[in-house]
Design goal:
The protein has two domains: about 290 residues, 3-Layer(aba) Sandwich (Aldehyde Dehydrogenase, Chain A, domain 1), CATH 3.40.605.10; about 190 residues, Aldehyde Dehydrogenase, Chain A, domain 2. It has about 550 residues and is an alpha/beta fold. About 40% of the residues lie in helices and about 20% in strands. The strands form seven sheets. It has a seven-stranded mixed β-sheet, sandwiched between helices. Strands 9-8-7-10-11 form a five-stranded parallel β-sheet, with helices on both faces. α1 packs across α4. The radius of gyration is 25 Å and the shape is globular.
Length: about 550
């Protein structure tokens, strides 16, 4: 048994690779893309460390080429989900009892594998399965490694926090895993979030049942395989693609549920929270509920803003990854005095924006994730074309003949409460409200109050007094706030990510704020010289 005190240094963020023409990394990734494009992966459930194939399966296709099947995934039902919970609970004691340094070693090794030999595998599967460009996939996979390293380090920082002791008494505090299992439901849009949601609780000794998104299941499966290759014990994380209704019925209802870790829609999160509330008396503990949900993220410009940086931020913030980032800019407020110049700059810049197949490295954006997303985006565009309350000034086309392609679209809205200004879309559609310069404070209130969300926001201004005023006015409108930058691109350890209001619980992923939610403090008082008296000094009359 080791009795050393181990210290993990504060990690550095993983450096992005450039994949420049002629580079070795570019050639290797293209080779891996070709390999994965040419095969159909049979994806099993992984329960208790064993691969399980079921009769019920779904096909996984490329969003930018929806006839091209790249995987066939088994789906869990009632029997398999019960097995998954039982396997997690069976693994719990040994996993929680494993020395901290050995649990940490598994995840630190996994981070090195992600940034090393698994990098091209995870990048390629993210590109093909989730229709991400090479750059968007690269920053996603780098973030996955960051989550692992910063998760381990953040846990260590929590462990250091100890209570005060006085002479004759030693007070100490342990940080236990939660009593039960964690249910993790993960989204399609980030492989890193898919991996982090079951993994963060596991770092501190919890066990998990993981429902990956159907449209991200290939990259998520490769990450699960990586964890197993790095020595993750059987049953600690159980990989169970399934329907949301089955997960709610057979997993979230279990009395042993200790926590729920979620990224996805506001509606689903609220539904699960309601279910947990209704079942609260039947659980062994009060489950921890942690979630990041929707957003109606904004860029708000002041008349002193520089035109070209603003235009570039609007394009990148709105259209990178087809507007499918939780942080993507979906609405903008621009003053009348600079709007003509901003629009002209955006039209010029959009000439450089190519939409197409992610395997073409000059592609800026690709296809939305599936037919449901395509239909939703098309509906907003079609209604905008027919409405007298708005004008489409850029884009407006949709084509699903080969892939789920929605052209980057900018809608200028005459009313700040037009539907595309206030409703989450999750696609490459930016709605702009052009406000009178003398209505700044009024428009700031509209920006703050018109949406129920509070995930990300950005302001552009050169006037420092205006910056101070705008930041104060929008204080509660965003969990991540940017000044003279786009409202996307949070980096683990630099801009801890999360939002409040209808956007989630704001338990910043990759930080102590998130990690401590998966711990149950255990306070111990040891008295070295116990008292033998029962009478206190004050009780004497002399």
């Amino acid at each position: 048994m080791s009795n050393a005190y181990f210290t993990i240094a504060r990690p550095d963020n993983d450096a992005f690779r450039g994949y420049l023409p002629g580079s070795k990394e570019r050639a290797e990734l293209k080779e891996e893309l070709a390999r994965q494009s040419a095969e159909v992966v049979k994806i099993p459930l992984i329960i208790g460390g064993k691969e399980i194939f079921t009769e019920k399966t779904i096909k996984v296709t490329m969003p930018h080429d929806h006839a091209h099947v790249i995987a066939e995934c088994s789906m869990a039902g009632e029997k398999e989900l019960k097995m998954a919970v039982d396997a997690a609970l069976a693994a719990k004691r040994a996993w929680e009892d494993m020395p901290w340094e050995h649990r940490s070693a598994i995840f630190l090794k996994a981070a090195d594998m992600i940034t090393g030999p698994y990098r091209k595998v995870l990048n390629a599967s993210t590109m093909l399965g989730q229709s991400k460009t090479v750059f968007q996939a690269e920053i996603d996979i780098a973030e996955l490694a960051d989550f692992l390293r910063f998760g381990v380090w953040s846990a260590q920082e929590i462990f250091k926090d100890q209570p005060a002791s006085v002479p004759g008494i030693w007070d100490r505090q342990d940080y236990r895993a939660l009593d039960g299992f964690i249910c993790a439901i993960t989204p399609f849009n980030f492989t890193s979030i898919g991996g982090n949601l079951p993994m963060a609780p596991a770092i501190v000794g919890n066990v998990a049942v993981w429902k990956p998104s159907r449209t991200a299941v290939l990259s998520n499966y490769y990450f699960m395989k990586l964890l197993m290759d790095c020595g993750l014990p059987a049953g600690v994380i159980n990989f169970v693609p399934c329907s949301g209704s089955d997960m709610a019925k057979h997993v979230i209802s279990r009395r042993e549920l200790a926590g729920f870790h979620f990224t996805g829609s506001t509606e689903v999160f609220q539904s699960v929270w309601k279910q947990i509330g209704e079942n609260i008396a039947s659980y062994n503990n009060y489950p921890r509920v942690v979630g990041e949900t929707g957003g109606k993220d904004y860029i708000f410009a002041h008349k002193s803003a520089k035109v070209r940086p603003l235009a570039a931020a609007l394009i990148r913030g709105s259209f990178e990854y087809q507007g499918q980032k939780c942080s993507a800019c979906s609405r903008a407020f621009v003053p009348e005095s600079i709007w003509p110049d901003v629009l002209a700059a955006m039209k010029e810049m959009m000439k450089e924006v190519k939409q197409g197949d992610v395997q073409d490295f000059d592609t800026f954006l690709a296809a939305v994730i599936d037919k449901a997303s395509f239909d939703r985006c098309k509906g907003f565009i079609d209604r905008a074309k027919e409405s007298a309350d708005c004008d489409i000034v850029i884009g407006g086309s949709c084509d699903d003949s080969k892939g789920w392609f929605v052209e980057p679209t900018i809608i200028v809205c005459k009313k700040p409460d037009y539907e595309s200004m206030v409703t989450e879309i999750f696609g490459p559609i930016l709605s702009v409200y052009v406000y009178p310069d003398d209505k700044l404070e009024e428009t700031l209130r509209v920006c703050d109050e018109a949406s129920p969300y509070a995930l990300t926001g950005a302001i552009f201004a050169q006037d420092r007094e205006a910056i101070v005023m705008m930041e104060k006015a929008l204080l509660h409108s965003a969990g991540n706030f940017y000044i003279n930058d786009k409202c996307t691109g949070a980096i683990v350890g630099q801009q801890p990510f999360g939002g409040a209001r209808a956007s989630g619980t704001n338990d910043k992923a990759g930080t102590v704020l998130n990690m401590i939610r998966w711990m149950s403090p255990h306070c111990v008082k040891e008295t070295f010289t116990p008292s033998e008296a029962i009478v206190y000094p004050y009780m004497s009359e002399k």
